[in-house]
Amino acid sequence: xxxxxxxxxxxxxxxxxxxxxxxxxxxxxxxxxxxxxxxxxxxxxxxxxxxxxxxxxxxxxxxxxxxxxxxxxxxxxxxxxxxxxxxxxxxxxxxxxxxxxxxxxxxxxxxxxxxxxxxxxxxxxxxxxxxxxxxxxxxxxxxxxxxxxxxxxxxxxxxxxxxxxxxxxxxxxxxxxxxxxxxxxxxxxxxxxxxxxxxxxxxxxxxxxxxxxxxxxxxxxxxxxxxxxxxxxxxxxxxxxxxxxxxxxxxxxxxxxxxxxxxxxxxxxxxxxxxxxxxxxxxxxxxxxxxxxxxxxxxxxxxxxxxxxxxxxxxxxxxxxxxxxxxxxxxxxxxxxxxxxxxxxxxxxxxxxxxxxxxxxxxxxxxxxxxxxxxxxxxxxxxxxxxxxxxxxxxxxxxxxxxxxxxxxxxxxxxxxxxxxxxxxxxxxxxxxxxxxxxxxxxxxxxxxxxxxxxxxxxxxxxx
Amino acid sequence: xxxxxxxxxxxxxxxxxxxxxxxxxxxxxxxxxxxxxxxxxxxxxxxxxxxxxxxxxxxxxxxxxxxxxxxxxxxxxxxxxxxxxxxxxxxxxxxxxxxxxxxxxxxxxxxxxxxxxxxxxxxxxxxxxxxxxxxxxxxxxxxxxxxxxxxxxxxxxxxxxxxxxxxxxxxxxxxxxxxxxxxxxxxxxxxxxxxxxxxxxxxxxxxxxxxxxxxxxxxxxxxxxxxxxxxxxxxxxxxxxxxxxxxxxxxxxxxxxxxxxxxxxxxxxxxxxxxxxxxxxxxxxxxxxxxx
Lengths: 464, 292
Ligand code: SF4
What we know:
heterodimer, A: alpha/beta, TIM Barrel, 2 domains, six-stranded parallel sheet, two-stranded antiparallel sheet, 18 helices, globular, B: alpha/beta, 3 domains, five-stranded mixed sheet, 45% helix, binds iron/sulfur cluster
């Protein structure tokens, strides 16, 4: 088929009009190809899992509390998420992450499934996805399904297909595991409402930090429509929470059982993903965008995905990926925004970027020597949380223990935190850091534990 | 022990005999028996260690239960912690817990000192047990087997701590309508859709080999890997190598890593969009950049 395509191409020569002909012809060929050589489920799985791997999210926590003790179906959810395996890219495998199809009428340049890509195409039937999910689940290799799709026919049609998979799993197979559905931008409000009844989590990717970048790289996508979908999801879950509250109240007043249990809309909330490094947005604009997303749409998570070169790439994109370290630093900064009381403006340097050399908390501490050393026995919780090397858990422990007695150097050494790092920024009755202690941490020491820049202690200390 | 016979030997029913331990602890505290006077026998000790036991008083379950529950008051959090730590594989765990309990009997405030070295150590052990339970929930791999009575699912798993009983209820809730068995060298768990049954250790040979359907999972594992972002350390930290031999998908890791460089190179250099469209885009792109 490729030979045919290139033949037509060489033959078509000049006029632009013929280019259209070429596309139509290619589509036709693809269709014939796909029908003539019927793909097995295994063939499709290889194509459609490969196509889904650029979505970073694989979280399975926060779902509704369910189990199958009634022996009607299978599965449970509601605890913390479980990673059933890890790929050599270090990513957790928690969900069966699939595209229903990688055919797509959109042409987002960063995406391997865009219309103009020559990637091999496939499409699952609803039953195939349902069966794969149940089979994997019984082997105990997944917590559930994360289903997304290229856009075929119309956004609403595509969304209906996704919902149908979730509906069958829930209503026919009584699947009680976790379901994450990707929301198709521009899908109708009614469909979003239905999706949220079956899914634990809904997500819609903002894709790029700025509207300009979206226009340039994903011409068919529309920032306003994406925001509208997020807004709808937020409103639905607010309403559903209100309903549940009301229901509880009625229960208390009447002292009896409610007639019908109100199903909670997408109990694990919504998340999104941003591609880093496909455009020239700064870390500042990325973090500002994230902060706004958390605030406006009450997102549970913003995922950052370092732009990684994709097969069959468009020439309009950088051919080299963004450094994974940049992605890592953004995750650390995001974490600091949400749980450590930092503001995005504090974390970036003058050029609007996060330091690649040291983690954002360390970078902040180095830039603000006036706050250090921090007195472990006196400082407020907020300040202790800003000490490089101290995680939430260590801080909680120190706060509790110092009510009983004064903390000493030996206590810090026993914390299990990176001792040298912490000691460079704190003072204790039997310890004061040397003037240059913090700077000395930056010198390369081959024997030091934290030589690998991949291992920010921030995550080791507090990642869920 | 060093030849000096200890005065008391507590006999526990099993390594994870949480209730037996609680009862014994109550007895020891009530009679003011110090940790140094006690030998703990959970059935896993070598014969030589048990030699001394004859000399002391043997405290079995019927003996220790003479001290009523509730007669010894300890912080509730400590008791919860102890129930977890009993499942740890350290041979010293019973003594450490006894020592902590004795300390708390003397000084209640010791519990508030979250930085007390002994408490930090116990917390660490509890975390290790908790993590092992979590990893068991994650890494048990069921394989379907069809028998005359129908389909059953069997897994072989090798835990480091005594967590089989603690981890099993999770599977009973999740797979309540299935028949399943988890075989381990530290004891087995069966679910027949009615009750959880625990049985003595099994051997790896008792577990089934891969079935044909497992190929789908292996294919998925290979496909979901992104060769452009290899992070082996991260994988090893979260999926420690000691689990690999029982995780079928890890057989693909070497090959995936081996091919990653070449696949990434191809990704970065293959631009196979139809030439015409690409040319147009390049033109647009270069115009865009010159305009800026
Ligand atoms: S809509 Fe864009 S990002 Fe989504 S599959 Fe299609 S081309 Fe890819």
